TrEMBL record:
<dbReference type="Pfam" id="PF02272">
    <property type="entry name" value="DHHA1"/>
</dbReference>
<dbReference type="GO" id="GO:0003676">
    <property type="term" value="F:nucleic acid binding"/>
</dbReference>
<dbReference type="InterPro" id="IPR003156">
    <property type="entry name" value="DHHA1_dom"/>
</dbReference>
<protein>
    <submittedName>
        <fullName>Phosphoesterase RecJ domain-containing protein</fullName>
    </submittedName>
</protein>
<dbReference type="InterPro" id="IPR001667">
    <property type="entry name" value="DDH_dom"/>
</dbReference>
<dbReference type="InterPro" id="IPR038763">
    <property type="entry name" value="DHH_sf"/>
</dbReference>
<feature type="domain" description="DHHA1">
    <location>
        <begin position="262"/>
        <end position="336"/>
    </location>
</feature>
<feature type="domain" description="DDH">
    <location>
        <begin position="31"/>
        <end position="174"/>
    </location>
</feature>
<dbReference type="InterPro" id="IPR051319">
    <property type="entry name" value="Oligoribo/pAp-PDE_c-di-AMP_PDE"/>
</dbReference>
<dbReference type="Pfam" id="PF01368">
    <property type="entry name" value="DHH"/>
</dbReference>
């Protein structure tokens, strides 16, 4: 167990040393399990698989990657190098020698995989959420990192693993998706420097971007049209900063024959609304359960809203699970926003 670093600061040298020792000290027969958060996004999958390929280069043979819930990877990520490391959660080693967790801020994001943390020899947590609850044994949590893959790249460097095109692809997908394709404020000089190192391996950014952002089935295009048409604008919400929101039901998905993950991209078409600082998409999970995505352009700290409603995230991108009807879920958000949780 490494001593906790003060909130807001990145890993200490002792944290890095402990992480390097945990990997380097593995016997040849060690079983290593990589896990990430439920409904894995580009950062979760890209940093996990990119790092996994790095472990392969180090000679780790017994290596699996998994995530909680149905073993369905969004179509846009199925081509990622290292995807063959993935196994359904039920087939993951029950008692691995080392668990490495990617992009999860808390145990609540790990579903049934929480038991693997308890049952493992050592648990290493790589993350970049300021709200990380430090649920492992060794923590590499850097709230200033634009993506978890920033932390993963640094650990690979300290392990002496050279970047190659396969490793770089996952790390690049992670960096690109968590910076909104290099558009968000998190896009620092360090982010571009890392992107430069990754591109220097020969990976093709145009092709990667087309696959992860600009490819979707026609059914999803029509579904988006329908869901966007019912968007509501509330200019007075969030103390006058404005709220735009919409929702999608399981019936909407069924009518257009689409899987739930296609809705992950919907928030980007909603949050461009000029008249609202806060954007919200409410996605039906079961009868009275909804996965809620929140985004802010900068005036409102939506992570505070999400935390108040049982979720979490970053200041300008957060989420939670809402219960009840759509109107009840949106009413709860409106109420939290009227508390004017303005970002400092
Ligand atoms: P998204 O809207 O893309 O699903 O999530 C945006 C961010 O909010 C994620 O990076 C994640 O940190 C956080 N987030 C989304 N849903 C939840 C949730 O149900 N619980 C928690 N703790 N965080 C969430
Ligand atoms: Mn992330």
């Amino acid at each position: 167990m490494t001593s906790p670093a003060p909130a807001g600061t990145g890993p200490t040298e002792a944290d890095w040393a402990a992480a390097v020792a945990a990997v380097r000290g593995l016997p040849a027969t060690a079983r290593v399990l990589l896990i990430c958060h439920v409904n894995p996004d580009g950062d979760a999958l890209g940093s996990m698989l990119g790092f996994g390929l790095g472990l392969r280069r180090l000679g780790v043979r017994q290596l699996q990657a998994t995530f909680p819930g149905p073993p369905e990877v969004p179509e846009s990520f199925r081509w990622l190098p290292g995807i063959e490391l993935l196994v359904p959660q039920d087939e993951a080693y029950p008692d691995p020698d080392l668990v490495i967790c990617f992009d999860a801020a808390s145990e609540s994001r790990l579903g049934d995989l929480v038991d693997r943390l308890a049952g493992s020899g050592a648990a290493l947590v790589l993350d970049h959420h300021a709200s990380n609850t430090r649920f492992g044994g060794i923590h590499l949590v850097d709230p200033h990192a634009a993506a978890t893959s920033v932390v993963a790249e640094e650990l690979l460097r300290r392990l002496g693993v050279a970047l190659d095109a396969e490793i770089a692809t996952g790390l690049y997908v992670a960096l690109s998706t968590d910076t909104g394709s290099f558009r968000f404020e998190a896009t620092t000089p360090a982010v571009h420097a890392m992107a430069g190192r990754l591109l220097a391996t020969g990976i093709r950014p145009g092709e990667i971007s087309r696959r992860i952002y600009d490819t979707r089935p026609f059914g999803a295009v029509r579904l988006f049209g329908e869901v966007l048409l019912r968007a509501r604008l509330e200019p007075a919400a969030a103390a006058g900063h404005g709220l735009v929101w919409t929702y999608a039901t399981r019936d909407d998905l069924a009518r257009h024959d689409q899987p739930a993950y296609v809705l992950e991209a919907l928030i980007d078409s909603v949050r461009c609304t000029a008249e609202a600082d806060v954007a919200c998409v409410v996605k039906q999970v079961s009868d009275r359960e909804w996965a809620v995505s929140l985004r802010s352009k900068g005036a409102v700290d939506v992570s505070a809203v999400a935390v108040a409603l049982g979720g979490g995230g970053h200041r300008f991108a957060a989420g939670f699970t809402g219960r009840g009807t759509v109107d009840e879920v949106v009413a709860s958000i409106r109420a939290e926003l009227s508390g004017a949780l303005l970002a400092g």
